[in-house]
Write a structure and sequence with these properties.
single chain, about 210 residues, alpha/beta, 10 helices, binds cytidine-5'-diphosphate
């Protein structure tokens, strides 16, 4: 079984993806980490994230088995991740790894922006997870503060909106729902309720009550 979960920044897709993977015994890949790792490599080497040649070389050289997830989640990397993610050659270089991961038995949950549209268009279940920008900003602020990072609500909101805009407007694999994705709005749902709603959709698709 392959479950594709897409949606804008901090919509709750990562939490839902992790829980679904654990309940169904599937592998999980947070594909945002790949773009974050490319951005970090480019920044660490002193280059600009919109340097196509450097970003592409970093994507080709990437070793996803050696990620330091905490360092990649830092707010300083986030904006640069969305800049390198708009470069078609970077996306191309990361495609085979993601597709190979999705095919690993017994199956996988992948979360990102283009999983249901580009990486795994044949996924068994596709979710598109959304929430209002204000709620997403609140959640991200809590997450950053829990990790000891300074976070200003207005700055975080502005960052989310800027990234959503860049991710949606780019020509290479823009952020958008696949036509057969199930929309899950988590604005008024806590973690448990959002997870239960996701399981309901997966079960409905599996038992043939919904087409995905
Ligand atoms: O956790 P958050 O939603 O803030 O970000 P993320 O999922 O880690 O993704 C960081 C950036 O990587 C996004 O803003 C996108 O530009 C890019 N990304 C992408 O283009 N395609 C994906 N499949 C995943 C992430």
């Amino acid at each position: 079984m392959i479950i594709a979960i897409d949606g804008p920044a901090a919509s709750g897709k990562g939490t839902i993806a992790r829980s679904l993977a654990s309940v169904y015994g599937l592998h999980h890949l947070d594909t945002g980490l790949l773009y974050r790792a490319v951005a970090k490599a480019v920044l660490d080497a002193g280059h600009s994230p919109d340097d196509v040649a450097q970003a592409t070389a970093a994507a080709i050289a990437l070793d996803p088995t050696k990620f330091d997830n905490d360092a990649l989640k830092l707010q300083a990397i986030t904006e640069a991740a969305s800049v390198v993610a708009a470069i078609p050659q970077v996306r191309e270089a990361l495609m085979n790894y993601q597709r190979g991961f999705a095919m690993k038995p017994p199956g996988a949950v992948l979360d990102g922006r283009d999983i249901g549209t580009v990486i795994a268009p044949g996924a068994d279940v596709k979710l598109f997870v959304v929430a209002t920008p204000e709620v997403r900003a609140e959640r991200r602020v809590r997450e950053l503060r829990a990790r000891g990072e300074h976070a200003d609500e207005q700055e975080v909101l502005a960052d989310l909106l800027r990234r959503d805009e860049r991710d949606s407007r780019r020509t290479a694999a823009p952020l958008k729902a696949a036509p057969d994705a199930h929309l899950l709005d988590t604005t008024h749902l806590g973690i448990d309720a959002a997870f239960r709603a996701a399981v309901d959709i997966v079960e409905a698709v599996r038992t043939g009550r919904k087409r995905s």
